[in-house]
Amino acid sequence: VVINSLSGPLLKQSIKLLAYHGHFVEWGKRDVFDRTALSMFDLRSDCSIHVIDLISLSDKQQDICTDMLEEMVQLFIQKKLKPIEPTVIYEPSQVKEAFLRCNSGQAMGKSVVRLTNSSEPLYVNSKPSTGHLSTDNHAMFPLEVCQQGTVLISGGFGGLGLTMSRWMIEKRGVKHVTLMSRRTLIELEQASNPQYDDWLKLKQISKTYDAHVDVVQVDVTNFDQVHDLIERLSQTSHPVRGIIHSAVVAEDRSLGNLTQEHLARVLAAKVHGAWIFHQVIQLTHASIHFFIMFSSIRNHLLELAAASYNAGNQFLDALAHYRMTELNLPALSVSLPAVSGAGMFHRHRDVLTSLQLTQGFELVPTVAVFELIEHFQANQTMCPCPVIFAVSWQTLYQRRHKLPTFHLSKIVEERHAAMNLSNTSSTSSGINSTIDSNLNQKEVIIERTQTAVSRLLGATNVDRILVDRPLVSQGMDSLAALSLYNWLGQETGIFIPLADLLQGFSIETIATVVHKKLNERHETVSITNGGQDMRTDVVDENEIIPSNTSTYTGTENIICLQRTHVSGSPIRFCIAEKSTNNTYGPSFALFISNIDGQQTEEIPVATYVIQISSMIPLATISTYAQDMITQMRRVQPRGPYQLVAMRNKQEEVIAREMIRQLKDHLVINDVQFLLLDD
Questions:
Q1: 634: how many CB neighbours lie within 10 A of its CB?
Q2: Is the dihedral of CA 577, 580, 582, 587 positive or negative?
Q3: Are 317 and 270 in contact (CB under 8 A)?
Q4: Where does the record place the Carrier domain (predicted)?
Q5: Residue 49, Cβ neighbours under 10 Å: how many?
Q6: Which of 139, 474, 645, 663 has the highest CB neighbour count under 10 A?
Q7: Is residue 507 located within the same domain as residue 578?
Q8: In whole angstroms, what is the distance from residue 356 CA to residue 377 CA?
Q9: How far apart are CA 140 and CA 370, in angstroms?
Q10: Shortest CA distance to 335 belongs to which of 379, 372, 290?
């Protein structure tokens, strides 16, 4: 017997637990009144289903309910029945969170609101009377922010502001974003603007997800303008709930060339802007859920040429610490690393190049940075000034005697020791020889990596992680990829680029790469007889070789049927179920002939087959289509695209999902779709 009150997918999973001749008792209401459909296939075990509405039962058969209540009381007295657990207790100020949890349909146990013996007031409206931080709500994007609030971004026309706006709308469901800038919308929409493409993508994403992006010409250093903006938004149905302060003026000068005017110009945006935000929030009693300030890793490197810039960063750290520790107000000052495709380092490539050569800096993907910020937000009470330090530890260790601070040198040496690196060994290439000897067999690498990935992804059983499937399709996000990147470096000394881990690498491919690199290292060590240390390897994407003997291309599901000898000829991608012998015989010859016969232009067309599995679960179609798009774009990086599939088959479902993702996520609208009747 299964007694169920869960809804949605959990209801369907509960039915699968029934034994032969089992009884399923449903006393939830959501799926009943939503007319949720159930598969008859899940009821094949000759089971019975009973839907019980206790309210209707009490109206129509009150005597039965009375008998049940009396029996239940007796069972409680005899202690045969115990209170339902777990019991989650909410304070009066959290009454909305309590009801949201109950309405989620996935809550276990009981939710109880404490109305007596509590020092907190009962909030029944949407606007609390204080802006103090709620220590019980650590999520960065609750309903109050995403649906009922506005995220205000200073320096909103910069690459980071535009990119993070797009991420918040697409990935976190934020509906209202306001971009502040001294520039106008007309300037933003000029094709010569470096952020023009980012702005077009943001407009497309906001339209797709029904979000509102407002652009306001407000100077963050002008108190009256900032005050009027926040006061005006407070009078709307979506007041300011989050602030991201990314305004910056970067202008490096040596100490000897510093002037009062230079300092005032550089400090104005960061320091005055942050302080004005702090004052206005208190004056308007704005209920701010988060206040993120963008500092920089350069603040911790003692660069004399960046003295004025780092003075601003130091102030942001001090302000975040003051708000959090003294006032218990939300604040986070994040020292950003070199962010791929956005931020100060992207605009000043000369600075980035210098830091890469001298300090071993590494680029971090924007999505990884945003997810890290989200993680920091949840722990801001413990660490309001986190630092994202993305570097090559091997490069730093080689320069440990030239690093600017003793503290940094100590961190590098500790990290180096933890990674089992040694620059004095004459029998290894910098990785402990005992580790290498244990990794001589590819099977051992696969087993260790599979165990590590299962731990990172929280799998209940290591066998749930498939070694031949891309890790992204098994739930690995950018944070998990970053952890895997560090683990591989620590265990093997081989650093596989994050981009590869996030674009289709499987455990088997990772093991092949690591095994190949370790063998090359052993061969080099035996030749040089330990004459000099070797640098930790960084994988070249052009050297990757998978488990079979063919060169890895990241297109394991794509085969070429028909090539052309004309440069720049169009490409056709036919979606079909995977053949057992990778051959597509007369049926595909007719397939191609029929398509070519319908084309009006006589231009040679290359034909590729995207092979899909014969049985793809409905829940994984989105992820599967994403993987197919990644492989297709390795063959043809840019549109227009031509997709072909059989009508009313699984191939059509995959093709339509690929087209949707190309349009919604990649803003690629030039896609031709041909359907063939079987």
A1: 14
A2: negative
A3: no
A4: 443-518
A5: 15
A6: 645
A7: no
A8: 28
A9: 11
A10: 372
How far apart (Å, rounded) are the C-alpha atoms in residues 508 and 226?
54
Contact 226, 283 (CB under 8 A): no
Closest CA relative to residue 246, chosen from 343, 126, 355: 343
Separation of alpha carbons 678 and 676, rounded Å: 6
Report the interhelical angle of 442-457 vs 478-492 (nearest 10°). 140
Residues forming a β-bridge with 363 = 338
Per the domain annotation, does 87 fall within a domain?
no
Determine the residue type at 671. Answer: V
d(CA 362, CA 269): 27
Indicate whether 263 and 195 sit together in one domain: yes
**Residue 612 corresponds to which tokens in the numbers above?**
């899909």
CATH number reported for the structural domain that contains residue 571 in this entry: 3.40.50
In this prediction, residue 534 carries a pLDDT of 39
Q: Helices marked H in 458-585 — which ranges?
A: 478-492, 498-501, 507-528
Residues 608 and 513 in one domain: no
Cα–Cα distance, 233 to 292 (Å, whole number): 19
**Pairing label, strands 641-646, 606-612:** unpaired
The reported pTM is: 0.47
Structure tokens at 233: 């938004």
Domain with 227 in it: what CATH number? Answer: 3.40.50.720
Residues 566, 539 share a domain: no
Which three-class secondary structure state does DSSP give residue 470? Answer: strand
Measure Cα distances from 600 to 66, 595, 603, 672 in Å: 78, 10, 9, 14
52, 188: one domain: no
User: What domain range includes position 40?
Assistant: 2-77
Instruction: Give pLDDT tens digits for 137-172.
Output: 568 899 889 999 999 999 888 888 898 999 999 999
DSSP H stretches of helix in 535-585: none
Mean local confidence (pLDDT), 279-287: 91
Other CB atoms within 10 A of residue 625 CB: 23
Number of domains, the chain: 4
DSSP H helical segments within 599-649, as ranges?
621-635
Assess whether 275 and 373 both reside in one domain: yes
Q: Per the structure block, which two tokens stand in for 645? A: 């599939």
Q: Is 612 helix (H, G, I), strand (E, B) or coil?
A: strand
Q: What is the C-alpha separation between 152 and 158, in angstroms, rounded?
A: 14
Distance CA 515, CA 656 (A): 39
Contacts of range 379-384, beta carbons closer than 8 Å, 24 or more positions apart: 379/138, 380/324, 380/330, 380/331, 380/332, 381/133, 381/135, 381/324, 384/320, 384/321, 384/323, 384/324, 384/325, 384/331, 384/332, 384/333
Residue with structure tokens 């503290």? 407
Q: Cβ–Cβ contacts within 10 Å for residue 614, how many?
A: 7
Q: Are 296 and 337 in contact (CB under 8 A)?
A: no
Length of the chain counted residue by residue: 678
Reading phi first (left if > 0) and then psi (alpha if -120 to 50, else beta), residue 117 is in left
Contacts of 627 (CB under 8 A, 6+ apart): 470, 472, 473, 504, 557
Listed residue (216, 210, 197) closest to 169, CA to CA: 210
Tokens of 678: 């079987």
- Give Dmax (Cα) for the chain: 92
How many other C-beta atoms are found inside a 10 Å radius of the C-beta of residue 177? 26
Euclidean distance between the first and final Cα of the chain, in Å?
Answer: 46
- Tell whether 72 and 7 lie within a shared domain: yes
Output the six-digit token pair for 344. Answer: 């100060």
The answer on pLDDT for 267 being more than 50 is yes
C-alpha span between 557 and 555 (Å, rounded) = 5
Mark out the alpha helices in 104-234 (DSSP H runs): 143-146, 159-172, 185-188, 196-208, 223-234
What pLDDT shows up at residue 567? 58
CB 636 within 8 A of CB 670: no
pLDDT of 483 over the 80 cut = no
Same domain for 586 and 531? Answer: no
What is the rounded CA–CA span in Å between residue 585 and residue 572?
Answer: 18
**Regarding beta strands 240-245 and 150-154, do their DSSP bridges make them parallel or antiparallel, or are they unpaired?**
parallel
